Amino acid sequence: MGFKKVLYRKKIKELPEELLPREKALRYGIESLSDVELLAILLGQGTKDMNVLGLADKILQGKSLESLKNITLEELLKIKGIGKAKALQVLAISEILKRIEEEEEKLLFSSPDDVYKHIKWLAKEKQEKMIAIYTNTMNQFLGEETVAIGSVNVVNVKPRDIFIPALRYNAYGIILVHNHPEGECEPSKEDIQFTQMIKNLSIQMGFELLDHIIVCKKGYFSFASNRAI
Protein backbone atom coordinates (compact mmCIF):
# COMPACT_ATOMS: atom_id res chain seq x y z
CA MET A 1 0.00 0.00 0.00
CA GLY A 2 1.42 3.40 -1.00
CA PHE A 3 2.43 6.01 1.54
CA LYS A 4 -0.42 8.32 0.52
CA LYS A 5 -3.05 5.63 0.95
CA VAL A 6 -1.78 4.80 4.42
CA LEU A 7 -1.62 8.49 5.29
CA TYR A 8 -5.12 9.22 4.03
CA ARG A 9 -6.73 6.29 5.86
CA LYS A 10 -5.43 7.44 9.24
CA LYS A 11 -7.56 9.68 11.39
CA ILE A 12 -6.36 13.29 11.35
CA LYS A 13 -5.58 13.19 15.08
CA GLU A 14 -3.27 10.19 14.44
CA LEU A 15 -1.06 12.12 12.00
CA PRO A 16 2.18 13.84 13.07
CA GLU A 17 1.65 17.52 13.85
CA GLU A 18 3.84 18.64 10.92
CA LEU A 19 1.37 17.02 8.51
CA LEU A 20 -1.71 18.73 9.94
CA PRO A 21 -2.78 21.66 7.71
CA ARG A 22 -4.07 23.91 10.47
CA GLU A 23 -1.03 23.46 12.68
CA LYS A 24 1.28 23.92 9.69
CA ALA A 25 -0.52 27.14 8.71
CA LEU A 26 -0.28 28.53 12.23
CA ARG A 27 3.41 27.71 12.50
CA TYR A 28 4.66 28.62 9.00
CA GLY A 29 1.89 30.83 7.56
CA ILE A 30 -1.07 30.00 5.34
CA GLU A 31 1.08 30.56 2.22
CA SER A 32 3.13 27.48 3.15
CA LEU A 33 0.22 25.13 2.47
CA SER A 34 -0.19 23.07 -0.69
CA ASP A 35 -3.43 23.21 -2.70
CA VAL A 36 -4.50 19.90 -1.12
CA GLU A 37 -3.88 21.28 2.38
CA LEU A 38 -5.77 24.50 1.64
CA LEU A 39 -8.75 22.58 0.32
CA ALA A 40 -8.62 20.27 3.35
CA ILE A 41 -8.95 23.25 5.70
CA LEU A 42 -11.94 24.52 3.72
CA LEU A 43 -13.64 21.10 3.74
CA GLY A 44 -13.13 20.65 7.46
CA GLN A 45 -13.80 16.90 7.73
CA GLY A 46 -13.20 13.74 5.74
CA THR A 47 -15.27 10.57 5.56
CA LYS A 48 -15.44 7.31 7.51
CA ASP A 49 -12.85 5.71 5.21
CA MET A 50 -10.68 8.70 4.35
CA ASN A 51 -9.42 11.72 6.26
CA VAL A 52 -9.91 15.25 4.98
CA LEU A 53 -6.46 15.34 3.31
CA GLY A 54 -7.34 12.24 1.31
CA LEU A 55 -10.71 13.68 0.34
CA ALA A 56 -9.12 16.93 -0.82
CA ASP A 57 -6.53 14.99 -2.83
CA LYS A 58 -9.28 12.89 -4.42
CA ILE A 59 -11.21 16.00 -5.46
CA LEU A 60 -8.19 17.71 -7.00
CA GLN A 61 -6.84 14.55 -8.68
CA GLY A 62 -3.35 15.96 -8.89
CA LYS A 63 -4.51 19.29 -10.34
CA SER A 64 -4.38 22.79 -8.87
CA LEU A 65 -7.16 24.64 -7.08
CA GLU A 66 -7.75 26.55 -10.29
CA SER A 67 -9.14 23.34 -11.83
CA LEU A 68 -12.14 23.61 -9.49
CA LYS A 69 -13.46 26.50 -11.59
CA ASN A 70 -14.92 24.05 -14.08
CA ILE A 71 -16.08 21.28 -11.75
CA THR A 72 -19.80 20.43 -11.70
CA LEU A 73 -22.21 19.18 -9.05
CA GLU A 74 -22.63 15.93 -10.95
CA GLU A 75 -18.87 15.29 -11.03
CA LEU A 76 -18.55 15.95 -7.30
CA LEU A 77 -21.44 13.66 -6.36
CA LYS A 78 -19.74 10.80 -8.19
CA ILE A 79 -16.81 10.97 -5.74
CA LYS A 80 -17.23 8.51 -2.90
CA GLY A 81 -17.74 10.36 0.36
CA ILE A 82 -19.00 13.55 -1.27
CA GLY A 83 -22.62 14.37 -0.49
CA LYS A 84 -24.58 17.45 -1.38
CA ALA A 85 -23.25 19.47 1.57
CA LYS A 86 -19.56 18.93 0.72
CA ALA A 87 -20.30 19.32 -3.00
CA LEU A 88 -21.76 22.75 -2.27
CA GLN A 89 -18.65 23.68 -0.27
CA VAL A 90 -16.47 22.90 -3.28
CA LEU A 91 -18.85 24.67 -5.68
CA ALA A 92 -18.70 27.75 -3.44
CA ILE A 93 -14.90 27.72 -3.81
CA SER A 94 -15.36 27.29 -7.57
CA GLU A 95 -17.65 30.32 -7.75
CA ILE A 96 -15.26 32.46 -5.67
CA LEU A 97 -12.41 31.59 -8.06
CA LYS A 98 -14.57 32.53 -11.06
CA ARG A 99 -15.60 35.84 -9.57
CA ILE A 100 -12.04 36.77 -8.64
CA GLU A 101 -10.93 35.99 -12.19
CA GLU A 102 -13.77 38.07 -13.63
CA GLU A 103 -12.90 40.98 -11.36
CA GLU A 104 -9.23 40.86 -12.35
CA GLU A 105 -10.20 40.74 -16.03
CA LYS A 106 -12.29 43.89 -15.58
CA LEU A 107 -9.69 45.77 -13.54
CA LEU A 108 -8.55 48.72 -15.61
CA PHE A 109 -6.46 51.63 -14.37
CA SER A 110 -7.49 54.62 -16.44
CA SER A 111 -6.89 57.21 -13.70
CA PRO A 112 -5.18 57.63 -10.33
CA ASP A 113 -8.63 57.29 -8.72
CA ASP A 114 -8.88 53.75 -10.12
CA VAL A 115 -5.54 52.88 -8.55
CA TYR A 116 -6.51 54.44 -5.24
CA LYS A 117 -9.79 52.50 -5.08
CA HIS A 118 -7.82 49.30 -5.63
CA ILE A 119 -5.09 50.04 -3.11
CA LYS A 120 -6.65 52.39 -0.51
CA TRP A 121 -6.37 49.65 2.13
CA LEU A 122 -2.68 50.56 2.22
CA ALA A 123 -3.51 53.87 3.92
CA LYS A 124 -4.57 51.94 7.04
CA GLU A 125 -1.29 50.03 7.33
CA LYS A 126 0.88 51.06 10.27
CA GLN A 127 4.06 49.92 8.56
CA GLU A 128 5.46 51.57 5.45
CA LYS A 129 5.08 49.44 2.33
CA MET A 130 5.61 49.82 -1.38
CA ILE A 131 3.45 47.97 -3.90
CA ALA A 132 4.24 47.68 -7.60
CA ILE A 133 1.25 47.20 -9.91
CA TYR A 134 1.89 45.83 -13.40
CA THR A 135 -0.27 46.51 -16.45
CA ASN A 136 -0.41 45.73 -20.15
CA THR A 137 -0.47 48.30 -22.98
CA MET A 138 -4.19 48.89 -22.33
CA ASN A 139 -3.59 49.64 -18.63
CA GLN A 140 -5.28 46.38 -17.63
CA PHE A 141 -4.17 44.76 -14.40
CA LEU A 142 -1.64 41.92 -14.74
CA GLY A 143 -0.55 41.54 -11.15
CA GLU A 144 1.03 43.25 -8.17
CA GLU A 145 3.92 42.66 -5.82
CA THR A 146 4.99 44.02 -2.44
CA VAL A 147 8.48 45.25 -3.23
CA ALA A 148 9.42 46.73 0.16
CA ILE A 149 8.20 46.54 3.75
CA GLY A 150 9.25 48.65 6.69
CA SER A 151 11.59 50.94 4.79
CA VAL A 152 12.30 54.23 6.53
CA ASN A 153 12.19 55.87 3.12
CA VAL A 154 12.20 54.92 -0.55
CA VAL A 155 15.99 55.04 -0.87
CA ASN A 156 15.98 51.54 0.66
CA VAL A 157 13.83 50.09 -2.14
CA LYS A 158 15.87 47.97 -4.54
CA PRO A 159 15.02 48.67 -8.23
CA ARG A 160 15.55 45.00 -9.11
CA ASP A 161 12.62 44.09 -6.84
CA ILE A 162 10.43 46.27 -9.05
CA PHE A 163 11.75 45.20 -12.45
CA ILE A 164 12.18 41.44 -12.01
CA PRO A 165 8.41 40.92 -11.49
CA ALA A 166 7.75 43.28 -14.43
CA LEU A 167 9.70 40.90 -16.64
CA ARG A 168 7.86 37.91 -15.19
CA TYR A 169 4.46 39.47 -15.89
CA ASN A 170 5.62 40.60 -19.34
CA ALA A 171 4.32 44.01 -18.31
CA TYR A 172 4.30 47.29 -20.19
CA GLY A 173 3.32 49.69 -17.43
CA ILE A 174 4.39 50.00 -13.80
CA ILE A 175 2.49 51.89 -11.12
CA LEU A 176 4.21 52.35 -7.78
CA VAL A 177 2.20 52.91 -4.61
CA HIS A 178 3.55 53.47 -1.12
CA ASN A 179 2.10 54.77 2.10
CA HIS A 180 2.99 57.46 4.60
CA PRO A 181 1.50 55.86 7.73
CA GLU A 182 1.89 58.84 10.04
CA GLY A 183 2.48 61.69 7.63
CA GLU A 184 0.99 63.77 4.84
CA CYS A 185 0.55 62.57 1.28
CA GLU A 186 2.98 65.12 -0.13
CA PRO A 187 6.17 63.52 -1.50
CA SER A 188 9.46 63.99 0.26
CA LYS A 189 12.65 65.02 -1.52
CA GLU A 190 13.67 61.33 -1.47
CA ASP A 191 10.31 60.30 -2.98
CA ILE A 192 10.85 62.70 -5.89
CA GLN A 193 14.45 61.59 -6.52
CA PHE A 194 13.49 57.93 -6.30
CA THR A 195 10.60 58.36 -8.74
CA GLN A 196 12.84 60.05 -11.29
CA MET A 197 15.43 57.28 -10.96
CA ILE A 198 12.81 54.55 -11.51
CA LYS A 199 11.36 56.47 -14.47
CA ASN A 200 14.79 56.65 -16.12
CA LEU A 201 15.49 52.96 -15.46
CA SER A 202 12.04 52.05 -16.81
CA ILE A 203 12.76 53.81 -20.09
CA GLN A 204 16.10 52.03 -20.39
CA MET A 205 14.49 48.64 -19.76
CA GLY A 206 11.51 49.12 -22.06
CA PHE A 207 8.81 49.77 -19.44
CA GLU A 208 6.75 52.84 -18.69
CA LEU A 209 6.38 54.19 -15.18
CA LEU A 210 2.75 55.30 -15.37
CA ASP A 211 2.48 56.79 -11.91
CA HIS A 212 3.79 56.82 -8.37
CA ILE A 213 1.02 57.26 -5.84
CA ILE A 214 1.50 58.06 -2.17
CA VAL A 215 -1.44 57.18 0.08
CA CYS A 216 -2.11 58.48 3.56
CA LYS A 217 -5.05 58.81 5.92
CA LYS A 218 -6.25 61.96 4.13
CA GLY A 219 -6.20 60.56 0.60
CA TYR A 220 -3.44 60.32 -1.97
CA PHE A 221 -0.87 62.17 -4.05
CA SER A 222 -0.35 61.21 -7.69
CA PHE A 223 2.92 62.11 -9.41
CA ALA A 224 1.21 61.78 -12.80
CA SER A 225 -1.71 64.08 -11.91
CA ASN A 226 0.72 66.68 -10.58
CA ARG A 227 2.93 66.36 -13.66
CA ALA A 228 5.82 65.33 -11.45
CA ILE A 229 6.70 62.26 -13.49
From TrEMBL:
Question: Which keywords belong to this entry?
Answer: Hydrolase, Metal-binding, Metalloprotease, Protease, Zinc
Q: Report the domain of life of the source organism.
A: Bacteria
Q: Which InterPro entries match?
A: MPN (IPR037518), RadC_JAB (IPR025657), UPF0758 (IPR001405), UPF0758_N (IPR046778)
Q: Where is the MPN domain?
A: 108-229
Question: What family does the entry list?
Answer: Belongs to the UPF0758 family.
The name on file for this protein is JAB domain-containing protein
